[in-house]
Amino acid sequence: MKQISLIDKAFILKKTPLFETLDLDLLLTISDKMDLLSFKEGEKIFSINQEAQKMYILVEGRVGIYNKAKELIAEVIPEDFFGEEAIFNERPRAYEACCLAESRLLSLSRTYLLSILSECPAVAISLLEIYAAHTDFRTRGSQK
Q: For 59, which of 1, 42, 104, 137 could close a Cys bridge (C-beta 3.0–4.6 Å)?
């Protein structure tokens, strides 16, 4: 697996909606805490009901998100992130993530993500803005 330099990781983070507002010094600090993972086509990243300890950013490849009925409900594209919601609600994964093509991802542990959010309000605000943009009034009310 070809490694990615610290600066390359930082530039990947800069392209993601979650981290785009941060300056390079902070991105380098976050990048240093991220692991680069490789998966083959068809390989699972995580399963439904698995304990959530990491979130992921897709560097290259394609990842499918599947519900309990094994239906494809979303496709993750490079520079997008997934897996963070189970970290926040402290519940097992509600969906499965599987590679649709050979893929490389950056992972960030729950501990580091929560630390980043507490030290960088800009990341927390970005996360809230992303969720608010994708959650309408009716969806919020039906999730009780």
A: 104
Strand order across the beta sheet in which 54-60 lies: 35-39, 103-109, 54-60, 81-82
Q: Residue 71's domain is classified under what CATH number?
A: 2.60.120.10
Mean pLDDT over all residues of the chain? 86
How would residue 18 be classed by pLDDT, with cut points 50, 70 and 90? confident
- Give the residue-averaged pLDDT of 97-103: 97
Tally of structural domains, the chain:
1
The residue segments making up the domain with residue 17 are: 6-130
The whole-angstrom separation of Cα 106 and Cα 78 is 11
